[in-house]
Amino acid sequence: MTAALALGVALSACSPTFDWRTVMNNDKGYTVDFPAKPGNDQRAVQIDGTPMQMAMQTAEAGNAVFAVGTVMLPDDSDATQRAALDFLRAGLARNVGATPDAHAVQIPLAAGGRIPGQEMTVSGAAGAKHETRTVYARLVARGRHVYQAAIIADQPLPQDQVDQFFSSFQLY
């Protein structure tokens, strides 16, 4: 899942230009600023043995991939949300051989207010060439959706670029 994003970073010849644009994804229930025009993808994932679909919007800029993944859950129970969050957190960390260490963060709602989420930054070797990657991620569950807003970069990004992406990520 996220290995493809890391591979995309390794294979891309990105422009260092960040051309920020607000993208509203009404179907998935979020808005976010991407640094370039995003593409769409979808992939199958297995969470606790249950097949699910993960919709992805990704954009490349500054030798990094910016992505928002959305998993539609079969129900909105705390256990299902927790399993999906654990799956995404572990997968991102595993892609760079790191420990999935996250801390609490508040995710803004477009209508005002905030809900609890998780944030992590991990670095390590990724891909066949074991090149260093830094993964910045925010994870949050809301209703039957679990969201993964992530940046995968071949070197640490300026904090203002990270902040632009994450501060613009809001749920409906």
Architecture overview:
The chain has 172 residues and is α+β, with helices and mostly antiparallel strands. It has one domain: Protein Transport Mog1p, Chain A (3-Layer(aba) Sandwich), CATH 3.40.1000. Helices cover 22% and strands 48% of the residues. The chain has 3 helices and 10 strands; from the N terminus they run αβββββαββββαβ. The chain has a 7-stranded antiparallel β-sheet with strand order 3-4-5-9-8-7-6, sandwiched between helices. Strand 4 and strand 5 (64-72) form a beta hairpin. It is globular, with a radius of gyration of 15 Å. The two termini are 25 Å apart. 37% of the residues are buried. Mean pLDDT is 90; it is low at 1-15. It comes from Paraburkholderia youngii. This is Transmembrane protein.
